[in-house]
Amino acid sequence: MRLSARIAALAGSSALVLGALAGAAPATAAPAGATAAPDIPVASVKQHLADLQSIATANGGNRAHGRPGYKASIDFVKAKLDAVGFTTTVQQFTYNGTTGYNLIADWPGGDPNQVVMAGSHLDSVSSGPGINDNGSGSAAVLEAALTVARTGYQPTKHLRFGWWGAEELGLVGSKYYVNNLPTTERSKLKGYLNFDMIGSPNPGYFVYDDDPVIEQTFKDYFAGIGVPTEIETEGDGRSDHASFKNVGIPVGGLFTGASRVKTSAQVSKWGGTATAFDRCYHSSCDTTANINDTALDRNSDAVAHALWTLSGTTTTPPTGTVFENTADVSIPDNGAAVTSSVDVTGRTGNAPSNLAVGVNIVHTYVGDLVVDLVAPDGSVYNLHNRSGGSADNINQTYTVNASSEVANGTWKLRVQDKASVDTGYVNSFKLTFP
Hints:
6-stranded antiparallel sheet
């Protein structure tokens, strides 16, 4: 991650804001029969990090643009991918009078007009080996690609992977790649996923606040393993996803924190200490000892989850229409009720007798919560009434007989915390009409 991320944080740089309608627009339901992503073995990811450390050690202690350690890193990743059947391309560019390199790897098959891409910057700063920044993202993307090959995965969409040069000098490599893509090729990129610093030693779990579908894909994964997330703000727009976003390509990604200090609330949420997320950020101590294995493991699995989910495995038509709101809504502790709303349009007649109500709430004590579905006419359907005790989170689909309600209109998920101490937020709310 670029040093300018620190400046952005100190200046109070705000998160990129989703459009007001992003969470409420109708989307198609997920394809039936999709293959679940395999586990990404963290030991394999750590081996890649050990190899990158060895490359840095043998080349003056870093893997920076224009230094021999960077070219050796490119050669290392390329050899791994060539050996398992990827089509690889090394793209050269010049910056500050020095040759830089991007590595692009395409997995054969999938719809060439629908491309899902994952990437990370492979360069370090000159002051250290860059094992968290950004060996962690590069190693996780590499192992995800190798897992695609190992499992013989054949998605509906085409999969592409990228490792960028000179990110630390201003997103140079990724800008070069995007700027040299013809307009027709840009239009084929349906999503770019960026992974920059995903193994910080005092980690947080941050999700980019960009494309709502990609964002929700990551949030669903973490909610499913009981790990709360926050929107990434420390270096927002300061990594390679910005190069893609700036030309209209949907983007998203993950981050575990850099030089900013973890707050006491975040310590309560994630553990760790009220110190920097990564005390070795852009320093010589960013070595293999500067990695949190649990964060690296979780985020590596999240990489695979997103790739498998977004690339699809079937052309089976969706079984319903989904109206969804993915905007986070904070739930005040022992306070007033809050709502998340969706506007249902284009339906005829009444709602179905088997209306599927998807509820995703991140909360540390669900026994505090009362959760209701409120129909457009104000009718209330209780979904959850302070059950579950000390369990974390609600991630469940409820079936409601809403056949007496007109389908079109504003439907609300109403949530109230009726006891003190524990807090949380509505992560998403959706209605699926058959």
